[in-house]
Structure formats: C-alpha cells, structure tokens
C-alpha cells in the first residue's frame, strides 16, 4: 500500500533558515570548486522555499508551529 503524501507545510522558521543557509553554502562552495555536486545545494533551498519536506512527511515530523486558536 502506498503512503499518501499531503503537501502541507512541515518545515518551521528555524529549520527553514538553516536549510536555506546550508543549501546556499553547498551551492556556492560547489560552484567555486567547479563541481557538479553543487546541485545538491538546490534540495535544501527548494525545501526551505516551499516549506515542505517529503522525508518529514514520511517520518511524521513537523517543525511548523500553527496557531491552534484559528
């Protein structure tokens, strides 16, 4: 049976900042080194900008803080 993915935000603000920063460092470092491995930096940048991580969904992790009063 396949697991159903829901594209709900599951990456919080601190996690988002960390992912974007690390992704940018990988992208810049790989580009300066002339390596195609710089492309791996796009993955954390993508998950930071979309605020969705498929692996978090798979493992049931959510670092977002939602306002429960709404």
Can you offer a commentary on this structure?
The chain is mainly α. It contains three helices and no strands. The chain has helices at 13-33, 42-50, 54-59.
Describe the secondary structure blueprint for this structure:
Blueprint: H1 13-33, H2 42-50, H3 54-59
Percent helix among the residues?
40-55%
How is the main sheet built? none
* H/E series: HHH
Mean pLDDT, nearest integer?
88
- Per DSSP E runs of 2 or more residues, the count of β-strands stands at 0
Structural class: mainly alpha
Strand coverage percent: under 5%
Q: Given the C-alpha coordinates, what overall shape results?
A: elongated
**Count the helices. How many?**
3
Radius of gyration: 14 Å
Which stretches are low in confidence, meaning pLDDT under 50 for 5 or more residues running?
Answer: none
Alpha-carbon distance between the two ends: 34 Å
What is the gist of this entry?
The protein has 70 residues and is mostly helical. It has three helices and no strands. The protein is 51% helix and 0% strand.
